[in-house]
Design a protein that fits this description.
The complex is a heterodimer. Chain A is of the alpha/beta class. Chain A has 10 helices and 10 strands. In chain A, helix 3 packs across helix 4, helix 3 runs parallel beside helix 6 and helix 4 crosses helix 6. Chain B is elongated, with a radius of gyration of 19 Å. The chains are: A alpha/beta, B mainly alpha.
Chain lengths: 251, 221
């Protein structure tokens, strides 16, 4: 089995508050893994561990082991810029830069030192094609990205990640701000993208987790209660707490 | 105590379960009514059994429709999903039990018109075991009791053995007295239909097992 993300005895504290408790997790390559659980259970905190975004929060302490592609990322020597290139993130609210569509996608490459016009153009076309935006926007690449629809903006944010050739895409409720049709299309995109990338998605929408994920983890009060094939989680979960949550007995 | 979330859904599930119990009860009445009417040579009683099939069919359609509605509107998961999916399968089996009960009543009527063989007494014995199986299954469903399902499965072997034994006895009788062949064949068919009802009851038992455990398997090997 090819695991791209592995955690062992992962614990995280916000000051004295323990937000993650002994998380042991192995995520396979090229699948979609869903993280579900009630508000405040630690899903987004766990997601942010994978690209060390929690480092930006004051007073955070992380212990244990987290490996991305067999490399320990909690090591203080880790190059965070390289890590965040390898492990990209999209957020609940699409956040394109106030730049043109072209510059949004090229930005990451420029930051990593890429200057060649041809290389940038090819990368922009490839990334926008991967998110099914290129055909619609090829004649408007210098239009301000903020003029796009929310769905297009979210696709653009994903394209921005793809341009720097990541291995993992982290998605924190990527469809929360979108209408049902747009949500459906982003979900279709995710299923397409998993052929090349590993995706971890945090979602409050259980039906979404059931639709798109291959494996699913249920979290509660900082613990990973159950982690299994999505079909198993949603038809016959092993843990009563998982069953109670997904049947809506508590939320 | 905090109110349970999804009270409406829980209530709807309970109503669904009550409906399937009513459907099972209708079939129980058909079984019991058939053998009672046959003993009394009550042809009108047997006609009533045939008429009851419409009741069973109505339950079948009503419950299936409600199951689909609940799936669409409530997006059930895990045990709730297994319960609804199992009920959708169970109603097919119960509907077939109703159909077989009708066939039994029709052939009983023919036997009354033709000739009732002494061997017909054995039918009551087979029917009794089938009714016991149905009662055990109903209780297993209400209490979610898998031990009762196991007990019921053992009774299916009794029905199978009784059928095979009766078959041999009837063949022997036909050989002795070919004139009784027509009635004898009715008798075999009636026994066979009871045996098929028992098979459908075991199917229901397997669905109860699945509802509780999430494991789909043949319980009667």
């Amino acid at each position: 089995m090819d695991y791209i993300i592995e955690t062992e005895k992962l614990n995280l504290f916000y000051g004295t508050f323990q937000a993650l408790i002994d998380i042991n997790l192995r995520i396979e390559k090229n699948i979609i893994t869903g993280l579900i659980g009630p508000s405040g259970c630690g899903k987004s905190t766990l997601l942010r561990v994978f690209n060390r975004m929690n480092d930006m929060i004051e007073g955070v302490k992380t212990t244990g082991s987290v490996k991305i592609a067999e490399k320990e990322i909690l090591d203080s020597q880790i190059d965070l810029i390289s890590l965040r290139k390898k492990v990209g993130m999209v957020f609940q609210r699409p956040n394109p830069f106030p730049l043109s569509i072209y510059e949004n996608v090229a930005y990451g490459l420029r930051v990593h030192g890429q200057k060649g016009k041809k290389v940038l153009e090819e990368a922009v076309e490839k990334s926008l094609s991967a998110v099914l935006l290129f055909d619609d926007l090829k004649d408007k690449l210098y239009m301000n990205a903020l003029g796009l629809t929310l769905e297009q903006q979210q696709r653009l944010c994903i394209a921005r990640l793809l341009a720097v050739v990541p291995e993992v895409l982290l998605m924190d409720e990527p469809c929360s701000a979108l209408d049902p049709l747009a949500t459906m299309r982003i979900e279709e995109l995710m299923i397409e993208l998993k052929k090349l990338y590993t995706i971890v998605i945090v979602t409050h929408n259980m039906q979404q987790a059931a639709r798109v994920s291959d494996q699913c983890g249920f979290m509660l009060l900082g613990e990973l209660i159950e982690f299994n094939e999505t079909e198993q989680i949603f038809t016959a979960p092993a843990e009563k707490r998982t069953e109670d949550y997904i049947t809506g007995r508590f939320g | 105590m905090a109110p349970e979330l999804r009270e409406t859904f829980a209530h709807e599930l309970k109503k669904l379960e009550e409906k399937i119990l009513e459907m099972g009860d209708a079939v129980k009445k058909m079984l019991a009514g058939g053998v009672t009417a046959f003993r009394k040579k009550d042809e009108a009683g047997l006609d009533s059994v045939v008429d009851m099939d419409d009741v069973v069919d109505k339950y079948n359609l009503e419950i299936e429709t409600r199951c689909l509605e609940l799936i669409a509107l409530q997006q059930p998961m895990a045990k709730d999903l297994r319960t609804i999916a199992s009920i959708m399968r169970m109603i097919n089996d119960i509907e077939r039990m109703g159909d077989y009960s009708v066939d039994i009543a029709k052939f009983m009527k023919k036997m009354i018109e033709e000739e009732i063989l002494p061997l017909s007494e054995k039918i009551a014995g087979i029917e009794k075991v089938v009714e016991k199986m149905l009662n055990e299954t109903v209780q297993a469903f209400i209490k979610r009791d898998l031990k009762l399902v196991s007990e019921m499965i053992k009774d299916d072997d009794i029905v199978d053995d009784s059928f095979h034994s009766l078959f041999e006895e009837v063949v022997a009788e036909i050989n002795k007295n070919p004139a009784i062949a027509r009635s004898a064949i009715y008798l075999i068919l009636i026994a066979r239909y009871y045996e098929r009802i028992a098979d459908h009851i075991t199917n229901v038992g397997e669905r109860i097992y699945y509802m509780e455990t999430g494991v789909l398997k043949e319980l009667h090997v």
